[in-house]
Predict the structure of Pseudouridine-5'-phosphate glycosidase.
Amino acid sequence: MDIHYTEEVSNALKENRAVVALESTIITHGMPYPDNLEMARSVEAIIRDNGAVPATIAVIEGKLHVGLNDDQAEWLAQQKGTMKLSRADLAFAMVRGATGGTTVAATMMAAQAAGIAVFATGGIGGVHRGAEESFDISADLDELGRTPVTVVSAGAKAILDIPKTMEALETRGVPVIAYGQDALPAFWSRDSGFTAPLRLDTASQIAEFMQMRTQQKVFGHGGILITNPVPQSSEIPYSEMATIITVAQNEADQKNVSGKAVTPWLLSRIVEISGGKSLETNIALVKNNADLAAKIAVAFSKLK
Amino acid sequence: MDIHYTEEVSNALKENRAVVALESTIITHGMPYPDNLEMARSVEAIIRDNGAVPATIAVIEGKLHVGLNDDQAEWLAQQKGTMKLSRADLAFAMVRGATGGTTVAATMMAAQAAGIAVFATGGIGGVHRGAEESFDISADLDELGRTPVTVVSAGAKAILDIPKTMEALETRGVPVIAYGQDALPAFWSRDSGFTAPLRLDTASQIAEFMQMRTQQKVFGHGGILITNPVPQSSEIPYSEMATIITVAQNEADQKNVSGKAVTPWLLSRIVEISGGKSLETNIALVKNNADLAAKIAVAFSKLK
Amino acid sequence: MDIHYTEEVSNALKENRAVVALESTIITHGMPYPDNLEMARSVEAIIRDNGAVPATIAVIEGKLHVGLNDDQAEWLAQQKGTMKLSRADLAFAMVRGATGGTTVAATMMAAQAAGIAVFATGGIGGVHRGAEESFDISADLDELGRTPVTVVSAGAKAILDIPKTMEALETRGVPVIAYGQDALPAFWSRDSGFTAPLRLDTASQIAEFMQMRTQQKVFGHGGILITNPVPQSSEIPYSEMATIITVAQNEADQKNVSGKAVTPWLLSRIVEISGGKSLETNIALVKNNADLAAKIAVAFSKLK
Ligand SMILES: [Mn+2]
Ligand SMILES: [Mn+2]
Ligand SMILES: [Mn+2]
């Protein structure tokens, strides 16, 4: 299978050094240029500062890249009309020569293929509100159920149905671990009001858990979901976010925003309603997750 | 594992020539004798005319057949009380010496075991209307999520809940490709009113996509669903079908038809309401799918 | 992978003799001490009386045990605050040095890893009532979909939504077999009012079905669910149980019992309402399942 590595990533993998995978829909669909590029670069810097190597994953003109060099990141950050690649269409983009950002599901697939055990993102997809009628459930959940990669997130995006998402993860046998607290985080907020099923307090503990799962590969273990609360200084408390989300959703309903348009519409409307604060929180949590993911990858590389 | 091949299929597989799998519930449960036999023979002829070898799959007195000779097809077409075999009961029929037609799920399993990459059918099973209460979701969807066979269909049977079926396929990471158009077909109709997630325009493009997925087997790719619109001359437009389906369903509700009886009852009532037209359309789309499947199998055999 | 066997189990596995796995949440969460220990011992005795070896599975201070000696069983039966381990947290308990009983899902995982083909329990988890809103679906169902172990049960616990559980098993391709009757049992009752999808009448027939599935491992078969009706002398008829369950559920609703607290609350309230009869039935059905599981394991060991 044909994966294009940067020399930095390729060398790190050969030498069993710490590598952290990064998704690229945050670049292609998350923010406008040049904010997206700046964000990507500062996230990569945080990973390097921790002694790990960042491996941003994307499909560029049909080639699957694990690690982007400066020119590639710059180029990708400026593309319009790129695909948003999940399990169903990753190979499709590759054979058609398309360019796309990878979601959590597709990034997990590429990370596993490349031998990268840890992956940092903002939040995972999950069960959408109203899924009891729409059946709209992200492919990220099935991927977590089958692909043995540790995903460091700030939880499920809080516009989703969090209790249903937690149930769906339990059904699929995915461990959900709150980092350093009992409460399950909710993306922009440190505390969703729900208790996380499991808790670990250090990067080393997480690495040891990963090692135990690796040793038990006969069990066919899938992914691990780490939910890492956004730093207190950057959080928007859940009570406040709940109101903002409700307002945004009511507007979406009134304007008949539907289907795949709902999530991006809500996320952008929430930025407006919060006066830009939700975007700051989003950036802070992504950086915070990159930091923890790098620490986990370093701890894990010492155990192997 | 004990598979019974016809010499024609066995030779074609050894020589890496194009083979198309066919399901057999269309013979055992889809139509009465001798219409079912005639249909099966004309479908096989279409595949041979395209330079591929047909491999009808069925369990006959406990033996799994991949390819039926004339006597076997004739015999199977006349059996009464045969099983309708899905993943859960394929091995059960084999150990008990039973006879059964294979659904999409069981045909995919046998095709994969035999090394056949392409399979032609009418329509796949999916999420039933009312599944938000009944949880009635076909095993075909899970099978598409895990078994790497390309299924050439005219979409999901339109008595199903098409939007929910599409969501369930996305969750499971199944690429859904409309052939030669943007619209998702809806079995008897060329246009369901929904846009298909992906589109390809030639058998070669589909074969290339299959090859890319085969090369990427590390990704654990499952099946590919091709949705091939019925020829215009034979279609019943969706607006017309929607009315017919609604009438049939209201009758089913009034008569308290429930459980596993609903689908066959609806399909047969729809034939009556449409004055036989829906059966003609059904036959036309199966032939059309066999034709496309054969062209894909031939293109794929040249790439290997 | 580090599994701790008793000498009895280890020898039996080496010599390809019949072994029956047993879960341990019945010990840690099902009954108080010393009833739980007494129950565990009598179940093990029934298995030995049939010429098979019992292998109770549990995690004790981080170690995965397949088979417990007398001291370990005695110790486990007296622990408080143990974990209830499913797929998501089995490895977590192991790395953290915790102690826990294994659910159906985790017991299946350990049985497969140990090479044990048959597992006896009371009832499996399934789709909870109200799951159309809560999405509360046991990980046991996904495990049955993927892990090739035969689970001998008295059906799904009848406080669950039985029709939805049956649909979910069909979607996942799990054969559900009623033993010796057409009706699907419903834990405390011999007849749920539904017909089981499949029926077998002897332990040998079940062993032959298992062998056929084993020979067809290319199909990626998961588990088999045997539903074994509780002996008539111990059953509570379904009409009676339905009333008791409804009363208990109404009380749970009035008292706002919710989330993970519902199932244990209902089970214990049902014991009270039935004047202790439901507990007797529960014990009788577990013993009855151990007996059948042992007979299946013996028959299967002769076929290998
Ligand atoms: Mn979706
Ligand atoms: Mn069904
Ligand atoms: Mn649950």
